[in-house]
Automatic annotation (TrEMBL), chain A:
CDD domains: RRM_eIF3B (cd12278)
Highest taxon of source: Eukaryota
GO BP annotations, alphabetical order: formation of cytoplasmic translation initiation complex
Cellular component annotations (GO), alphabetically ordered: eukaryotic 43S preinitiation complex; eukaryotic 48S preinitiation complex; eukaryotic translation initiation factor 3 complex
Protein's name according to its UniProt entry: Eukaryotic translation initiation factor 3 subunit B
Native source species: Solanum verrucosum
From TrEMBL, chain B:
PROSITE patterns in UniProt: WD_REPEATS_1 (PS00678), WD_REPEATS_2 (PS50082), WD_REPEATS_REGION (PS50294)
This protein's name: Eukaryotic translation initiation factor 3 subunit I
Assigned keywords, A-Z: Cytoplasm, Initiation factor, Protein biosynthesis, Repeat, WD repeat
Record organism: Solanum verrucosum
PANTHER family: EUKARYOTIC TRANSLATION INITIATION FACTOR 3 SUBUNIT I
Amino acid sequence: MSEVVSMEEIRAISDRLGVDLTQIDLDSIHLPPGDDLGIPSDDEDLLEEDALEEDQGFGNILVVDNLPVVPKEKYEKLEGVVRKIYSQLGVIKEGGLYMPVDPETQKTLGYCFIEYNTPQEAELSKEKTHGYKLDRSHIFAVNMFEDIEKFLKVPDEWAPPEIKPYVPGVRLFTSSVFFEMLLKWLTDEKARDQYVIRSGGDTEVLWNDARQMKPELVYKRPYWTESFVQWSPMGTYLATVHRQGAAIWGGATTFNRLMRYAHPQVKLIDFSPGERYLVTYSSHEPSNPRDTHRVVLNIFDVRTGKVMRDFKGSADEFAVGGTGGVTGVSWPVFRWSGGKEDKYFARIGKNVISVYETETFSLIDKKSIKVENVMDFSWSPTDPILSLFVPECGNQPARVSLVQIPSKEELRQKNLFSVSDCKMYWQSNGDYLAVKVDRYTKTKKSTYTGFELFRIKERDIPIEVLELDNKNDKIIAFAWEPKGHRFAVIHGDNPRPDVSFYSMRSGTNTGRVSKLTTLKGKQANALYWSPGGRFIILAGMKGFNGQLEFFDVDELDTMASAEHFMATDVEWDPTGRYVATAVTSVHEMENGFNIWSFNGKLLYRILKDHFFQFLWRPRPPSFLSKEKEEEIAKNLKKYSKKYEAEDQDVSLLLSEQDREKRKKLKEEWEAWINEWKLLHEEEKMEREKLRDGEASDEEEEYQAKEVEVEEILKVDEEVIPFEESQQ
Amino acid sequence: MRPILMKGHERPLTFLKYNRDGDLLFSCAKDHTPTVWFADNGERLGTYRGHNGAVWCCDVSRDSSRLITGSADQTAMLWDVQTGTQLHTFTFDSPARSVDFSVGDKLAVITTDPFMGLTSAIHVKRISKDPSEHVCLFCLCADILVVEIVPEISESVLVLKGPQGRINRAVWGPLNKTIISAGEDAVIRIWDAETGKILKESDKEIGHKKGITSLQKSVDGSHFITGSLDKSAKLWDIRTLTLIKNYTTERPVNAVTMSPLLNHVVLGGGQDASAVTTTDHRAGKFEAKFYDKILTEEIGGVKGHFGPINALAFNPDGKSFASGGEDGYVRLHHFDQDYFNIKI
């Protein structure tokens, strides 16, 4: 820092040098850039303060327009009204409400600024109050302060958007590229299926090579995802979840990133059944701890990555109906109507079901379906039919009804009395709907269970009531046979419940449900049907230590009984050929998975510490035409011969390889041992020396010798009288 | 054959050792009395009283006349096998974890634990052989310290790499020229027995990932096997410290041994005693697992212990083996004829 020079001194110096100070243009003097010669500039302090303002940003400031213009006397009243509206939605900063006044007329200008503590609150308020009707002529127009600048830049004239040149690449989803790139895995020569596993930090996609009794690696990537992975419903994409959003991956032989979906702190994702849309969900801590969490849902178009619609709100609004889920929200919030068209999706709200259609992403008929007290709903897996459950309320009985979309016409309704709970199970083809109804007994102290079976595809949708042989049995599990007419129920009291199989049409009796069989005393609490039907696994999870029974429902016969100790998950591959059972890291020990054949033969077992996820890659529905499929079914013998021959070749090759490998290992070992023996021999003398000359090692190995020892114990002499007989 | 249950210890077993003839079995446990048993019928022959702490390890001389034991009472004791009299006591400043006689039984390597600020150390002690005047001679000779390897005070390079934590086992290499040590830091080291320098260290990449609990040499001393908490056992070349085989299992390995007769390896272990759940005994997998030594494939298992297996030993004739568990039992298994006909 240079010393301070007083004006007097400057004048003295200038006089001495003969410089006329008045003639000097101070602005013409330039300091070298970046050098202040040790004199700090006053200006910089000012600049710094400005920068601080900048850093904070204006993301938390709202501009509310279309306020009434009021004179000075009414200023405070208006301010009070505005403050009341906006402080409900967040905490307004102290002095954060500013309503400018025209200095000439002393009237307000019809707008105000509101500053919140956080941008999130501001955003929420904007959502909530944009379009708020204060009265008939004052409808609020609310904008973020930051956006105003953006709007100012909008040119008045419309300019056609620049057309981007065509760039061939992975990101393009033309149908030929699509098939070639993304569905190539379906053309595997060995017709194998893939699965993804996540253990520790690694995520791996593997082929299930059942013939070789081992998996084959397709792609491995450490830290591929930050929380979990998920296949799209037809197996085209693998989705990963990150702090910044979700991403999808796919490709011909490996996995490339195809698209990213920005959604900060995304927690959950869900694909539409036809893979067209991706729903992402996040929940954010409120700035005011008394408030509920704020929820953000985005619906993306999978192929373009565009946000089709977003939903924002407090967690309460999304926590209606359903059971379980994360922080009160039952996931998926949006349930998609069945079929691959992805035409409708719906969510349950208080006393409403909101059904949206995907052409415009708006409510059908611009309004939700009003259903008082609706508790739960589900879509038919194939048709645009909704089933609703409304519990008893006052004099109204509980009811289950079927609603056609988009006409919102009620197809069928059934009233139910003294109901405590209801669960709806659709059969995978949408042919049947089973409603499990828990009813109170007369004393209202206990409940019993019955089933209402709807035949959706028949005229007038007949309903049949099914009660178990023993009405008081508790229902532990229920499952429809995929694509079939049968279902299985586990009922009874632990520890050894019974399993019953029913058919919706058996033999000649096609119009009525009939029981096929009851298996007594099974160690099972979960049912896993093969995706192809016919075979089912009766599994005893958790308390039953992973008992597995592979059952053939056609023959009503147990194929195999096995155990995967502590198993937490059972998953059939999409073809129904193999089953995976896994122990995930909910248990500390035994983490890993087993792969079984459909009939209960253990094929291989892989142990992985910190095992989190096992997911088979789903397959899209068959591309074959109906006729082709029938033809294959007819000539199955011909085809199976070919595959059986292949199987045999592989198994022969495998045992040959195995033999070779073993032979090689043995030879290597022999070689190593011989080498060692040589060395050992060389060192023999030294070893003897160490042992003080005692012959060492194996050479003086202990031998059993038989030694006969004769010992004379006693010598006795006895005189034997000699008889003379020759007398 | 039905295993013989030998109940003599009141606390978990720590170590088992057969003598060379295979007629005696020595067992150490956390109670203070090492015990000797008839290896054939499991009858208890006698105990060695004198220790005042858990006994961690023992070794018996080639002629079965001397027994050395290492104990948590900070001593290692030399015993007369036949009479059970204490011949000499080596006193340390920290618990003795492992003991091993050299070829010729003139030296013993003893490891001590890190304790009260002391670091772990490997000691080599000289032992007199003369049986007639043992008492006096031992007093004289025993304290002659040939080499004392304390990593921290050897070359400065070694300090950094020096063993962290406990050394669980140290044994002699071929011709007493080297000492092989392994312990909690999961690294196997070969030391020069004369100079105390580290000759070799196992590679971090291929070596164990967690603490090594046990180490056993083959009968001919050509290779050794280590068992580790990382749920694997590994077979190493004793000279070059190259990894030969790897055996993976589902449980932390507490004990390993090799059949002297067949190419079989036995691993024993189970989940940590403190983590044993009350749900099911199967959860712990307290089995002795048999592996083919060359093919590294699992052959079978022997169940029985109610708790993890802490010690395993093969009879030198290869026809029986003993296992000692956290449950305080020693189980003596004589193989059926079928065992010797196993073909893979």
